[in-house]
Write a structure and sequence with these properties.
Number of helices: 6
Number of strands: 0
Strand content: under 5%
Structural class: mainly alpha
Length: 208
């Protein structure tokens, strides 16, 4: 007697096996895509942050170095009774005057990247810089004491830092924490130099 064999139905088994691997694979791909989108977004944000920070730092470098030097030279000249040579003072004034339009142009070019608070801080900074002529005239006439002159320049330097403190926070990039720490470290530098670390707001400023 011949036995009848039912055909083996392998297709449902293949589908079952495919589904076992397909479901976790699709989930893994979806998870990878989500992680990649976040990483790419942060990378783009950090890149834009770096480019903007580098442009600003390059533009203000001369001003952030020379303005504190003018403060120092003014103080020394006044405390010496205005009897010593003022050649160093005049040299720093010239350097500051040369740095102002460069800084103004660099900051103006980044206006679109700044928040309203940062633009306000920037306006305050240049309003204070606009007082330099009066400060210098008072120093030259002996109408300002050494401490008063030092304080007048310090207000401008403080406004400079005020602008950078505001600008650092504008975009909330992942580099913000590094930028804040670097800015504080740079401010403690006696020469006021603006070191650059991978283009970030290593903010690259300045002195006390």
């Amino acid at each position: 007697m011949a036995f009848f064999r039912r055909p083996v139905r392998s297709r449902p088994i293949r589908l079952f096996l495919i589904s076992i691997f397909a479901v976790p694979l699709v989930s893994l791909v979806a998870l990878w895509g989500f992680a990649a989108s976040i990483t790419v977004s942060n990378a783009i944000s950090d890149h834009e942050y770096n480019v903007s920070a580098a442009a600003i730092a390059s533009g203000v470098r001369g001003l952030t170095v020379e303005l504190p030097q003018e403060r120092l030279q003014s103080y020394l000249w006044l405390i010496g009774g205005r009897t010593s040579s003022n050649a160093s003072l005049l040299a720093t004034r010239k350097a500051v005057d040369q740095g102002i339009p460069v800084a103004r142009a660099a900051l103006h070019a980044e206006q679109g990247q700044l928040s309203a608070a940062s633009r306000s801080a920037q306006n305050t900074l240049f309003t204070q810089i606009g007082q330099l002529g009066k400060i210098r005239a008072a120093i030259d006439a002996g109408a300002m004491s050494p401490s008063a002159a030092f304080a007048a320049y310090s207000r401008i330097v403080d406004d400079l830092y005020g602008f950078f403190d505001s600008a650092i926070q504008d975009r909330g990039a992942s580099l913000t924490g590094v930028s804040v720490a670097a800015r504080r470290g740079c401010r403690a530098k006696p020469d006021g130099a603006l070191p650059q670390v991978d283009g970030m707001f290593t903010l690259r400023p300045y002195l006390v």
